[in-house]
Amino acid sequence: MSSHSEAVRSKVTQTTLIDRQDVKAVNTGAKSKGKLYAGRQKVFPKKVEGTFRRLKWIIMAVTLAIYYVTPWLRWDRGPHAPDQAVLLDMANRRFYFFFIEIWPQEFYFVAGLLVMAGVGLFLVTSVVGRAWCGYSCPQTVWTDLFLAVEGFVEGDRNARMKLDAAPWSARKLFLRVSKHLIWILIAIATGGAWIFYFADAPTLLKNFVTLQAPFIAYATVGVLTATTYIFGGLMREQVCIYMCPWPRIQAAMLDEDSLVVTYNDWRGEPRSAGTKKAAAAGIAVGDCIDCNACVAVCPTGIDIRNGQQLECITCALCIDACDNIMDKVGREKGLISYSTLRDYNHNMAIASPTPGNISPKLVRDDTGHFVQAVKHFNWHIIFRVRTLIYMGMWSLVGLGLLFLLLTRDRLEVNVQHDRNPVAIKLSDGSVRNGYTIKILNMVPEPRNINLSIQGLPGADISIPDVSEARGRSTSIPVEPDKLRALKVFVTVSSQLLKQGNTPFKIIATDPQSFETDIYDATFEVPENMK
Amino acid sequence: MSTKRETDELSGVDTTGHEWDGIKELNHPLPRWWLWTLYGTIIWAIGYAIVYPAIPGLNGNSKGLWGWSSRADLRNEMVAADAAKQAMTDAIGKADINAILGDEKLRTFAVAAGASTFKVTCVQCHGSGAQGRPGYPNLNDDDWLWGGKPEDIVATLSHGVRYTADNDTRQLPMPAFGKDGTLTAEQIDQTANYVLQLANLEHDNDKATKGAAIFAEQCAACHGDTGEGGKTLGAPRLNDSIWLYGNTLADVTAQINNPKQGVMPAWLPRLGETKVKELAAYVLSLGGGQK
Asked: Can you give the pLDDT at residue A1?
């Protein structure tokens, strides 16, 4: 294939108006034999306009807005709880998310959300390949942002390459310092926004700038500033290629019906830089005019025409670049497109009846249109067994979490029977058991919880910390959003003592909302005390 | 072994120049960052050995430039922990036991501190759950030989029981009625049956009736007319369910004949006022204390 196209290129001279890029893919993965420790070759992605570029701008704006704005949203929870909409209160071990408040023992909600995120990733990946990598991964979003800054300060690809190669001068110094300064400012803002998720944002900001914030806040901002600057500004595609496990994992989740960024060589090859001459010479060539626009715009420095590769984050910018060129040369868009492997193989079979020998004529009819047999994108591909199973799993976990959320207890009672000693004989012959009872008031309102016992004849309870009185029930004030641990003594009079273990219930009730939690306890009378 | 370096034709990579039985090794050097990390750790290790105690010698190890030691660390931590508690322990030291019990913060602190002291100085006799054992009172129950009010417990803890080194100790020995010959064996048997009757325990009615008179004459002065006990004297209540030395006829007979009488040391001189109050707060938290 390549020897053929080279032969074509040597025969014809270049006459089109297309701006041809003198660029080679720098990240060729397995093709770079024997160079395990080669130094990084710089990538200077060219600016590009188009559908996917616009989509990426929108996703960048939305994700960055979510990240920076969320901690500043307020949510009124009354006087006993913070009014920050999203807050991870580590010190008090509470997680607030709008109307939801999660205690540490309810962490399964977070685990459930992670399961949903995982299944969601399976779903997205099986439908549109590495869309996470290409559009919404923080590494991609921030690298894109940093590249935009670089382009704004230093100019587009050619200007940047020239500047990079130029000797140091006042202008170069100024441009470089400006670029890195802006990068560092973005990095500080990024690291800075993170800490606001963990404390009251306005208070923390005030303390932060007046140098009164805790050390951990400065350390966190410092570390995240450094990582943002280094990953987004300096390392960029290397993070994806060498550090990140996702490319390895996500590739395994693709199947032949996943939409991935594909160079359709069944219509592109043999590529030729001089199509008119080739046509004049009677040589059949494909749609690819070998302008290298797809290589020039690639942020990871690959050539998509080498096929699917680990380095490709499927940002689809090469689609935009190629579509623009196809427009200019008056050919159908989609030489590079989101396409499934099944469609690709099908079309390839049409184009090359004998493997390795692509004939561009076979996919087109006499009018230059694609023949009927050529398969194009069909949205039905989204709904297939695999994706429906993922959607089902995803919804199942989601509905399960919702059900748990709507039915979860906001009042809990935990009981621990004293073991040492288990039972105490009192002077009137009655026997007392001690219990450590924990009442969890999980709403941000003070409540009076009624604690009572059921099913133990002749028993009364006393809670010295609350009152002197002894009886069958006691009202216990519990602070908002707090756990109250109490020592509770249960005494059974000598006449009604039963040797051994007697089960009974300890019941906590909120008399206002009628919320109730019941604990099955036992009362123990050892042999020598009856 | 050859040391001739050459370029491998197949891979285009230089060999190390080493050859074993015709097998040559390709030279794939370590990544630079890896090597620099290795060098960095070596430099770090040298610095570490100089700064911290690390090098063994004949008379102990090197002390290191910073003079760090785990003992000093522990000492500092203990000092810091004491300093952090200082405000609370000062307040407990100054306050009266009832004031401590009335203040939730002070009481919580005192109970926790007392529990810790209890584990060191008290569990040997009273047990780890303060449940006692024959001869050593259970501190969870509501039977108090020397009074169960907060100030009673502080006084008992401070000066001990029958602890001769302390002049204010709780002291009232019970006579050994049998050993001293005050009562005959038969009289003791009758008295013991009467005592069991007071406590609603199994007894011989005839003997008990006879014993009643002896009890009124010999015992009621301290133990009360109906065996209700006398706390100021440390005379145990006899008409209840709690028996320090057992509630069989043999146990009671033995106790009248030649009583066992427990001793507790005075804790004030050893622990100081603050810790005694903390212990009292802990004992009262066990649920048997009186107001």
From this structure: 39
Give the number of other Cβ atoms within 10 Å of residue A248's Cβ: 9
Can the peptide bond before residue A421 be classed as cis, meaning omega within 30 degrees of 0?
A: yes
Q: Answer whether residue A11 shows pLDDT above 70.
A: no
The CA distance from B88 to the nearest CA of chain A, in Å, is 20
Residues of A in contact with B29 (CB under 8 A): 37
| Residue in A36, A428, A429 closest to B28 by CB | A36
Specify the DSSP class assigned to residue A496. Answer: G
Min CA distance, A425 vs chain B (Å)? 7
Query: Phi and psi (nearest 5°) for A509?
Result: -135, 140
Kindly give the pairing relationship between strand A100-102 and strand B15-20: unpaired
In this complex, do B141 and A434 lie within 8 Å of one another by their Cβ atoms? no
pLDDT, tens digit, for every residue of B120-156?
Answer: 999 999 999 999 998 999 999 999 999 899 999 999 9
Q: For residue range A475-514, what is the model confidence (pLDDT) as tens digits? A: 999 999 999 999 999 999 988 989 999 999 999 999 998 9
Q: How many CB atoms lie within 10 A of CB A176?
A: 15
Q: Which of A424, A468, A487 sits opposite B141 (nearest CB)?
A: A424
Q: What are phi and psi of A305, to 5 degrees?
A: -70, -10
Closest by CA to A147, choosing from A38, A65, A20, A60, is: A60
Of A36, A37, A421, the CB nearest to B129: A421
Cβ-defined contact of B242 to A426 (cutoff 8 Å): yes
Q: How far is A529 from chain B (nearest CA, A)?
A: 9
Find the mean pLDDT for residues B173-192: 93
| Residue A136 burial (C-beta neighbours within 10 Å; 0-12, 13-18, 19+) | middle
Nearest CA in chain B to A35: B13
Euclidean distance between CA atoms A294 and A264, whole angstroms = 13
- Which residue's entry shows tokens 């906001």? A410
pLDDT 10s digits, A257-271:
999 999 998 888 888
Let me know if A324 is exposed, middle or buried by CB neighbors in 10 A (0-12, 13-18, 19+). middle
Q: Lowest-confidence range among A277-291, A294-308, B49-63?
A: A277-291
Task: Give the pLDDT confidence of B192-247 residue by residue, as tens digits.
Answer: 999 999 998 999 999 999 999 999 999 999 999 999 888 777 889 999 999 999 99
Which residues of chain A have a CB within 8 Å of the CB of B291? 468
- CA angle B181-B185-B191, nearest 5°? 100
Q: Which residues in chain B are contacts of A434 at CB distance < 8 A?
A: 140, 287
Distance (Å, whole) CA A95 – CA A92? 9
ipTM comes to: 0.80
Q: What is the pTM of this model?
A: 0.76
